[in-house]
Amino acid sequence: MPRTPSPDTSAKRRQRVQSAETGMTILKALARLGGAASLTAIAAEADESAAKVHRYLSSLASEGLVAQHPATQHYHLGPEAVRIGLAALRQCDPVRMGESALLRLRESLQVTCFIAVLGNRGPTVMRMEEPSLPVTVNIRPGSVLPLLWSASGQAFVAFADDAELRAQAEAEYAGATAEQRSVMGGPDPVGTLCQQVRTQGCAIVRDTLLAGISAIAAPVRDARGHVVAVLTALGASNGFDTRPGGKVCPALMHEAGLISAAMGYVPPAAG
Amino acid sequence: MPRTPSPDTSAKRRQRVQSAETGMTILKALARLGGAASLTAIAAEADESAAKVHRYLSSLASEGLVAQHPATQHYHLGPEAVRIGLAALRQCDPVRMGESALLRLRESLQVTCFIAVLGNRGPTVMRMEEPSLPVTVNIRPGSVLPLLWSASGQAFVAFADDAELRAQAEAEYAGATAEQRSVMGGPDPVGTLCQQVRTQGCAIVRDTLLAGISAIAAPVRDARGHVVAVLTALGASNGFDTRPGGKVCPALMHEAGLISAAMGYVPPAAG
């Protein structure tokens, strides 16, 4: 088949890149199938011909990314896939991965925002961005926040689903002032709060931690679904939109979702 | 550059496969560098030109296998690498991966051999192969073995380096008969045994669990270095070579090493 020289060169270049991409597509297809499958199943999942997939699997096998079971001839992810995955997990840092989300939130909403992880003393602010005219708050990187009176803490307690953390929250409630307790209620105040936060998809507080300050926090999950950080935005209560469908909540939840996706999190299919 | 048609076609085919392999090589190089590195560092590690590596990294990025940090421009393993790694870890089953090792040991040494994992009751035989003229033992898949009087148990205690397992071994020693205890000695019998087993690289028992039966066991490690199984060979004491440098020990340790490598284990560099 004769071709003009120029498109041929361009096609060749694209193909070389494309072959690497096809290899990755097949690797991802095998992972989606649980890490072990027949050639037929992988070809169907990758939407490619069995002959083509077979050739790529040979390449992947020669690099240790896949291996073939001697008895069943099924393919499974190989030792190099494990090593790559462990390296990827080790460098999965929600704080680093949240940096651009903080910059986007600061720019688009002109709010103070931070990312917090659960340290040994509680929710701990790791990285913070403030707009050019920030609201004055005594929260800084390194600040440890309460579990029940901060949006960040509430997000950890509600979404982490961790019995020990829940017990710490109950202890915090038991030691709270009557005024603090007044914002919560019912026979199971911590349980009710958690339920409400989960229904909203984010934690929303007004004036509970700092007078005149409102905050919203959404969970960041890793590839295993564990809550590894929370993304929080805050502002002066008189100008900060705390409505669940308002300006801040959906944007914050969207950015938290982007960080989670970068960590490898796949949300469960909507039921 | 004119080429003859036939080698060109052949070269093209090879190149398509080769491009997929190059993509994997670069992905593995990034993993070896800890999962995050500069273009220069990745090119050096993969022993390819920066221009070529850059093109491949773009392909890997388009498939989500790598991502680029917006500030530093460094590359890091992306969310798809995490997902592939988790899938690979999930299907990493030492019992399945040990099947061919059992067949090879049975054929080459004509010994009974099995792979055991640490179940909730102790070392548990999962899969077993016997030669055509097997020695009669009352060990079957599902059998739970003692920690101190079986080679499998000793291998778990010595190599797993787990405080709880060590405590269970101490309890087993405390409850042992005088005859059982007589094969161990010194002020710290369990510690001395562990040290000896680690020095040998495998556990060797003669007649301690079953009269007239000797056994040798070597550890199988996963990608994190954890002992996830042991590979054990056994035979009648009068015909079974229990010398550390004999027929069985090196072969068994070699096969256990092959299973570990398939699990993603990388042995520490010799010091």
UniProtKB/TrEMBL annotation, chains A, B:
Q: Which Pfam families match?
A: HTH_IclR, IclR_C
Q: Which organism does this record belong to?
A: Acidovorax lacteus
Give every IclR-ED domain span.
80-265
* SMART domains to which the protein is assigned, alphabetical: HTH_ICLR
Keyword list (alphabetical) reads:
DNA-binding, Transcription, Transcription regulation
Protein's name in the database: IclR family transcriptional regulator
Report domain HTH iclR-type positions. Answer: 17-79
The record, for Gene3D superfamilies, names: 3.30.450.40, Winged helix-like DNA-binding domain superfamily/Winged helix DNA-binding domain (1.10.10.10)
The record's section on InterPro entries has: GAF-like_dom_sf, HTH_MetabolicPath_Reg, Tscrpt_reg_IclR_C, Tscrpt_reg_IclR_N, WH-like_DNA-bd_sf, WH_DNA-bd_sf
